Each structure stands twice: as structure tokens, then as C-alpha cells.
Amino acid sequence: MAIIGNIIKSVIQIKDTLTPESHPVENQKDVLKSLLETAKDTAFGKHYNFEALLEQDDFQTQFSETIPYFDYNKINNEWWYRLHEDQSDVTWPGNPDYFALSSGTTGKTSKRIPVTTDMIDAIRNAGIQQVFALHAFDLPPDFFEKEIMMLGSSTDLIEKENHKEGEISGISASNIPFWFRGYYKPGEDISKIDDWDERVERIAENARNWDIGALSGIPSWLELMLKKVIEHHNLNNIHDIWPNLQVYTSGGVAFKPYEKSFNALMGKPITVIDTYLASEGFIAFQARPETTSMQLVTDNGIYFEFVPFKPEYILEDGSLIPDAPSITLADVKLDEDYVLIISTVSGAWRYIIGDTIMFTDIERAEIKITGRTKFFLNTVGSQLSVNKMNDAMLHLEEQFDMKIPEFTICAKEFEDGFYHCWYIGTEDTAKDSSKITEALDNFLKDANKNYAVARSKALQGLKVKLIKPEIFSDWNAKNKKKGGQVKMERVMNEDKFKTWEEFVNQ
């Protein structure tokens, strides 16, 4: 009998019973007020007169009208650079203990995003909220006694000046609570290994020593790790070695494109729970099994705003025009794409995180990630978003009985006009690409009226190439750091795409 598991599950159930009902709109007012109050004496707070904003009855509106939008380059060039000159109280009190390195999906150059002690606490608190939300998934008591494999970036952080640097998953893992360390795998020693291939090799070697009940990590890299364990031990599937594996918490990207290839590595169904942890903070998590949507963490150090995702508001680099209108949680609508704007306890203010989201339940503040502002393909008016691309890949998987864990696309000009050039990652490269091209084109015409109009005018058609999925991970390994938070860019500009095609042809 799982005595400890029963106790933990009972505590989670009691906590849920005693927790008062959440009111996301009111939570957000309180969070913004707290952010302004805490930062009013910083250089940023004085520059934008937070003290005066706090005196306004409608301080949310005044806040959005007073503070401009910031992407990483703008806030770093105007404010965060001072943190590296040993200045304190710049956009948040004190000086951050950590900087999260993030190249995202766009290139080699790392962003250095401040991570304060307050943000570490906020991430930890959101994680605890997610644990307590597990009551809704009705997991068996013995699940709470199993170990958790967290495949992130290295916890061997870089010592630099008066702070440490690393990817957010490594920073978070290096700050796990003492009571959790007994559950945490692969453990401190292996987690510190910087070389991703070496770390995965050590995981494979030690896999039989662990009783893994849950997995956590970005799907693409987690799949490669699971394949390595299966290959190393000559298994049929991962449940042959971890029979008690029951849960996977996915993060970083939408899980749906990876679902079919991921499930092929399992011996039995497991519960998949989506999370939304970015370098800038823990934004949302799936709180109930009836939906794959995630609930915004509205009471824990992040204030959210939303800009309607319309081409006229988006610049070519994915940033916003200065006067793009924003709304608060009180005014959002269902099934509309929004650019997500955040202000945080790490001193990010009206920060364009680069993601687009859609609300699926306003009362619960539940969302789905629909894409990236930079990955919005609007050449010749096609207005193709990543969620439509993901839907198209799922359609192809079903129609042609194939697995497509990766893809990328570029709008490329040829002598006779523009084409959408697709590279689709699949083991089934012998499939008829002409039939796949026709099916993809027809699906997008039916799913997106703007695409259909573009196809009748300047968009001449599609060019589809089927390649092995490992080419995508090899590309990421060559251009960025392998594993961790690295994600494949879904849309490339022509210059980047030229380099990509040269790489593929090699």
C-alpha cells in the first residue's frame, strides 16, 4: 500500500477543498498594483512616475497609456544593460542573482533576461499550484511516491560578475526545494553535465536504477532521450524499463505535433499535462483533464495584457507598432488570437514575449498558445499562423498514416512568383510528396480564407520536401546549444532558409 502516496494525495485534496475560488480579473489588478508599488523607487519607476500611476482610480488604463511596449532589444538597450554595469534598482529593486540565457528559435545570440529572487519564488509557487491542481487528474496514490525525470538544460550555471547565467530550466532545477530532491532525476551530478549527448548517455546508463513516474521537458529533446534509453537497453518501449510512468508535463512548444511520435515510444497511455514556462516566468499550466488548455497564473508576479493579433499591428521583426491597442483580462474574447504582453517581478515591463495565445475559457482564464509573432506568415496576404500549420500537419498525419514531429516553412520567390516551401520531418520519406502537397494545399484553403484568396492571386503554390526528423535536431545542434530550451523555428526568412537548404543538402 502506498502510505506516503495516500498522505500526499489527501493533502492535495484537502488543500483544494480549502482554497477559495480564484478571481483572475481581480487577481490581475492586485498583481499590477503590487508591481508598481514595489518598483516605484527604481530608475524605471521614477522615469515613468509609478507613484502617480498608483494614485489613479483606473491605474490599469493609465499604466498602458504611459508605458511603451518593450521587446528584448528595446528594454535591454535602454535599461537592462545597466545591470551589467553593476547598477542596482534599474527596473526592479536590487540586482538579479541570475540571468536566463535564451536564443529562443531565432538564432545563436543569447538574450540575457534577468531572473530575480522574487521570480524564483514566483516560479516555485506556480509549480506548487500545479502540483495541487493534480487532484483533478485523479492519479493513483502510488504516483506520488515515484521519481520525476526533468530533462532541461545544465544546472552547472556560469559564474559571471555578481550573478549566475544559464537557461531557465537549469536555473529552476538548481533552485528546487530540499524536500523535492529525493524525487528529482537525473539528480544533481548528471544534471550538471553541460554536453547534452553525454548527459543523455549517462541517463541511459542509469535508467534501470530509477522508478520514474513522470517526465518533464520539451517534446523534441525528450523524444530523443527516450529513444536513447530504449536503444541502450534494447527495449520495445519506455514502459519496459519505467513501468510506473504515468504523467508527462510538456512545455516550451505545443505538444500536438509531437503526440503521434511520442506515443509510439510508450507501452501504454499516459496523462499529458501542458505547461507554459518561459525564460521570463511561469505563465500557465493545464489545471484540469477535460481540456488541453492552460490556466494563466494570474496571482503570482506576472501582469498580463493582450494585443489583438492583426497584421497591421505587427512589424516585420515580430514587435508591435507603438500605438497598437492593448486590453486587460477583463475584456478578452474567445477564439481570437492575441499577442501576449507581460510585466513581471523580474523587472520586465509591457514586455513582448513573442507568443500569441487564444482564450478558450475566459472565466477560468484558460488559453492555448497559437504561435509566435515572428512565425506569422503573411507574404502576399496568406495570413498563416503556426496553429493553422500545426493543424495541417495533424491532418497529414491522419490522412497518410505518418508521424510528423517537425517542420519548417518559408515564403520564397521564384521566377514565376511566390511559393510556400515546406520541409516536413518524417521517417516516411518514401511517401508521395506530390499527393502530400495537394492535400496540404487543400486543407489550408479550407481552413484559412486568407490563404485561399492568396492562392488565387500571387501565391503560386506549395513545394514540399520530406526529410528525416533528425536533420532538424542536427540543425539546432549546429546553430544553437543542443537540448534544453532550444526549439525549431517554424517560419524562416529567405536568408535563413537559404542556409537551411544548404545544410539539408549536405
TrEMBL record:
<protein>
    <submittedName>
        <fullName>GH3 auxin-responsive promoter family protein</fullName>
    </submittedName>
</protein>
<dbReference type="Pfam" id="PF03321">
    <property type="entry name" value="GH3"/>
</dbReference>
<dbReference type="Pfam" id="PF23571">
    <property type="entry name" value="GH3_M"/>
</dbReference>
<dbReference type="InterPro" id="IPR055377">
    <property type="entry name" value="GH3_M"/>
</dbReference>
<dbReference type="InterPro" id="IPR055378">
    <property type="entry name" value="GH3_C"/>
</dbReference>
<feature type="domain" description="GH3 C-terminal">
    <location>
        <begin position="392"/>
        <end position="495"/>
    </location>
</feature>
<feature type="domain" description="GH3 middle">
    <location>
        <begin position="297"/>
        <end position="362"/>
    </location>
</feature>
<dbReference type="GO" id="GO:0016881">
    <property type="term" value="F:acid-amino acid ligase activity"/>
</dbReference>
<dbReference type="GO" id="GO:0005737">
    <property type="term" value="C:cytoplasm"/>
</dbReference>
<dbReference type="Pfam" id="PF23572">
    <property type="entry name" value="GH3_C"/>
</dbReference>
<dbReference type="InterPro" id="IPR004993">
    <property type="entry name" value="GH3"/>
</dbReference>
